[in-house]
Amino acid sequence: MQLQQLSTFITQVEQALQVAPDEVRRLFHGRGRRWEGLEQITCDWLQGQLVVSLFKAVDEEFLNALRQALVALAEGDLWQQRDGRCILLQHRYESGAPAEVISGELESRPVVVENGLKYQLHLGSNQNAGLFFDMRLGREWVQQNAKHANVLNLFAYTCGFSVAAIAGGADQVVNLDMAGASLSKGRENHKLNGHNVQQVKFMAHDIFKSWGKIKKNGPYDLVIIDPPSFQKGSFALTKDYKKILRRLPDLLTENGKVMACVNSPAVGSEFIVDSMQEEAPEIQFVERLDNPPEFADIDAEASLKVMLFERKPD
């Protein structure tokens, strides 16, 4: 990280904050590598709270200058105009991702809005806040394509796709994730939006040991696959993704759709398309969804890949 680039970071954050909607939004995405010397810093707007994340250790000079620049931001007119309340600096490179409050008082459990839907976040104590902002257009697509659908949401985390699906008129969503605590947060997200949780199932199971239970709730009109790149002891992307794809023909309806996602810079979009052709050739590639413009990357293949497929009847 380069100290002389810090003014560029603050300028970009201020420009983005001026036009940001009253929803959660990434303001600066250094990891897209469009600003040399700022590749390991991001900034997110959480409707009154600003979260700046460092993904690599920096020297004390840079860190102190960053703190001072953020304090100056909090004392400016723009911050007052946007009703800014807190600036949080998170050290994502350290174990436990510790965070420090730079200005204001942290609201650690804020309810935020995206595409008109509410989500409960958890700030200051975890690497991830509870919603992956780069998947905004993916959730929007699900909401627009879920009417009367039976939806399977694999690796559901806090059930963002499920919330979008029910909001879009899905008849049922089945959420599966090994982390029961994350699914509990997903249940609360549904309740925040006034959804009927009787339409939603929460299964805290290992996907590879649960195909019988998964199939029992099918067939599905839409299957969403959004796994971690690697989860020790449970999922290795390049090895295990294909195991899921080969199960799809038994899970999908005649014209069922699949949203298959991968967010590893080491794995390109061709991996998903080629793997689907190999494991389930009757399920054909349709298109790749765009990522939100605020997540622009100099290499599209290194960024989030959201690939859409549809089963074509014989």
Describe the structure.
The chain is α/β, with parallel strands linked by helices and 314 residues long. It folds into two domains: 3-120, 2-Layer Sandwich (Transcription Regulator spoIIAA); 133-311, Vaccinia Virus protein VP39 (Rossmann fold, 3-Layer(aba) Sandwich). Helices cover 30% and strands 27% of the residues. The chain has ten helices and 16 strands. The chain has helices spanning 6-19, 60-74, 77-81, 136-144, 160-167, 180-192, 211-216, 237-245, 248-251, 269-279, and strands at 25-29, 41-45, 49-54, 86-91, 99-104, 111-114, 117-120, 150-154, 172-176, 200-203, 220-225, 230-231, 235-236, 252-262, 283-288, 305-311. The strands form four sheets. Strands 10-9-8-11-14-16-15 form a seven-stranded mixed β-sheet, sandwiched between helices. Strand 4 (86-91) and strand 5 form a beta hairpin. Helix 1 (6-19) runs parallel beside helix 2 (60-74). It is globular. The chain starts with 5 loop residues before the first helix and ends with a strand.
